[in-house]
């Protein structure tokens, strides 16, 4: 999947970058429902792309680390920081080996379309790593397509897929995308948000 994303960024075919305009209001409400950050509270953006969601978290008061495996995406994300006036640490790294790239102590994690494109083995490694770097009681807010074959698009993930890969995490919310979201053909993928809490 990493090679596919690298190629997509090189060709400028990155429809997921429109996420804020597609479901921004719903994401804002879901983030509002997460615990307000205490001073120094840490958030982790998984598969951050060019950093729009990472910057949003920082502007909300979180101390943000953001991880992506595509060098061009990280470079573009870093270039946005002086303009946005936000402080985010963008890390070129692998979400399936988080302890090698980030420290511990996160209380919020955000995944906008990363997990649902991983293989089963990668999902298990992602879950183990995420558990290792987060605190008990941490929340994960995840966007995913429902499972299905869609050619080059991510294969999607069900609630069961998520729970099996993230041992020790519980899905406490399953939210279909708002009916007024401008999804176009992607609406057929039955996209949704999951909210999970770590035990």
TrEMBL record:
Classification via Pfam families: Methyltransf_25 (PF13649)
Membrane-spanning intervals of the chain: none
Lineage: superkingdom: Bacteria
GO molecular function: methyltransferase activity
Annotated keywords: Methyltransferase, S-adenosyl-L-methionine, Transferase
Keyword S-adenosyl-L-methionine: yes
GO biological process: methylation
UniProt domain Methyltransferase: residue ranges: 44-137
InterPro entries, A to Z: Methyltransf_25 (IPR041698), SAM-dependent_MTases_sf (IPR029063)
Coiled-coil intervals, chain numbering: none
Entry annotated with the keyword Zinc: no
Record-given protein name: Class I SAM-dependent methyltransferase
Source organism per UniProt: Rhodococcus xishaensis
Lineage per the UniProt record: Bacteria, Bacillati, Actinomycetota, Actinomycetes, Mycobacteriales
């Amino acid at each position: 999947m990493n090679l596919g994303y690298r190629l997509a960024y090189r060709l400028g075919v990155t429809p997921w970058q429109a996420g804020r305009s597609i479901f921004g209001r719903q994401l804002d409400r879901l983030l509002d429902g997460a615990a307000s950050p205490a001073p120094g509270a840490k958030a982790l953006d998984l598969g951050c792309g060019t950093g729009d969601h990472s910057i949003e978290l920082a502007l909300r008061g979180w101390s943000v680390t953001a991880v992506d495996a595509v060098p061009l995406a990280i470079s573009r994300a870093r270039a946005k920081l002086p303009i946005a006036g936000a402080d985010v640490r963008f890390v070129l790294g692998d979400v399936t080996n988080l302890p090698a790239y980030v420290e511990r102590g996160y209380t919020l994690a955000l995944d906008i379309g990363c997990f649902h494109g991983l293989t089963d083995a990668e999902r298990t490694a992602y879950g183990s790593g995420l558990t290792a770097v987060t605190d008990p009681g941490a929340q994960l807010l995840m966007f995913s397509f429902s499972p299905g074959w869609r050619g080059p698009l991510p294969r999607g993930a069900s609630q069961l897929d998520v729970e099996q890969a993230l041992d020790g995490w519980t899905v406490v919310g399953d939210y279909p995308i708002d009916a007024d979201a401008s999804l176009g053909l992607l609406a057929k993928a039955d996209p949704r948000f999951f909210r999970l809490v770590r035990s």
